[in-house]
Write a structure and sequence with these properties.
By secondary structure, the chain is α/β, with parallel strands linked by helices. Helix content is about 40%, strand content about 25%. The chain is built from 9 helices and 12 strands. The protein has a 5-stranded mixed sheet with strand order 4-3-5-12-6, covered by helices on one side.
Length: about 280
């Protein structure tokens, strides 16, 4: 059980609704609902009764609430005792992720982190290479492939949904045909990726006209009318000149994992960044 889950639980118990708790914590209501269900599943207990008037604690929930409040009091006491020493965290962290994830997902979190810990220098490397944590090529890595290295601590962070996009005003293709349609896809080194295989299956007669290993480049080409492109929803939904194409089934989504080397698990500046990332992005 993580402290961030208990903070979420306390917010719901005090506010009485997912919406109010979500606004309090700066999260979305669906994320609050998913994380509450995951917490209840991990405990094997129902913590709230869902009533027309809101969320009411069950007997088990009341037990958790009393303990969680004591944990919160201890956490607040520790913060007061340290008296702002957290701002004295300093040093360097190298973070690695894919290009689009770094730009559209991580950057807002890192900007917030820099406001809280101005003396910690974070270097974000957006690179398609899988940098090695064991060789200290990076301190914290975000990637779509699970970590298998024995000395790496990792966790699933969130699931990213994907969509097929086209510039507004261009005709949508016919599912399981695609004749006359143009595609912008990953380069041949990424030919085996799920979205490329999905495109081949649902639009077998479409023509590949452009390739790129950069999702932002693909999005720009799509917005310019070059062709259809499969894009992560956080990227594609943010571009006003393109729209989703419904072919009856969406492209396969991908899990994003984070990992760091066991030797630096107690590094204070890394823990501070991990806490913020998990609080803002874990769903």
């Amino acid at each position: 059980m993580e402290w961030s889950d208990l903070k979420l639980f306390l917010a719901i118990a005090r506010s009485g609704t997912l919406g109010a708790a979500a606004r309090l914590l700066g999260l979305t209501q669906p994320t609050m609902g998913r994380r509450l269900r995951a917490l209840e599943a991990s405990l094997g207990q129902t913590l709230f009764q869902r009533t027309p008037d809101g969320f009411v604690l069950t007997d088990e929930g009341s037990i958790v609430f009393a303990r969680a409040e004591r944990m919160e009091e201890e956490a607040l006491s520790l913060e007061r005792e340290l008296g702002g020493h957290g701002r004295q965290l300093s040093g360097f962290l190298r973070v690695s992720s894919s290009d689009w994830f770094g730009t559209h997902v991580l950057s807002p979190v890192l900007a917030e982190f820099s406001q809280v810990y101005p003396k910690v220098v974070v270097e974000l490397l957006t690179d398609s290479r899988l940098l090695s944590l064991s060789r200290r090529e990076a301190d914290l890595v975000f990637r779509i492939a699970p970590f298998s290295e024995p000395d790496v601590i990792s966790r699933r962070l969130l699931r990213i949904e994907y969509g097929l996009y086209v510039r507004k005003g261009i005709d949508h293709p016919v599912a399981f045909n695609g004749e006359g349609s143009r595609l912008v896809v990953m380069d041949e080194a990424f030919e085996s990726m799920p979205d490329v295989q999905w495109l081949k299956r649902v639009l077998p007669k479409a023509d590949i006209v452009l390739r790129s290993n950069n999702r932002d480049v693909q999005a720009s080409l799509c917005a310019g009318g070059a062709g259809l492109a499969v894009l992560p929803r956080p990227l594609g939904d943010a571009i006003s000149t393109i729209e989703l194409v419904d072919l009856g089934e969406p492209p396969p989504g991908r899990d994003t994992w984070l990992g760091y080397h066991r030797d630096i698990r107690r590094l204070a500046r890394l823990r501070a960044l991990l806490d913020l990332v998990i609080e803002r992005l874990a769903g």
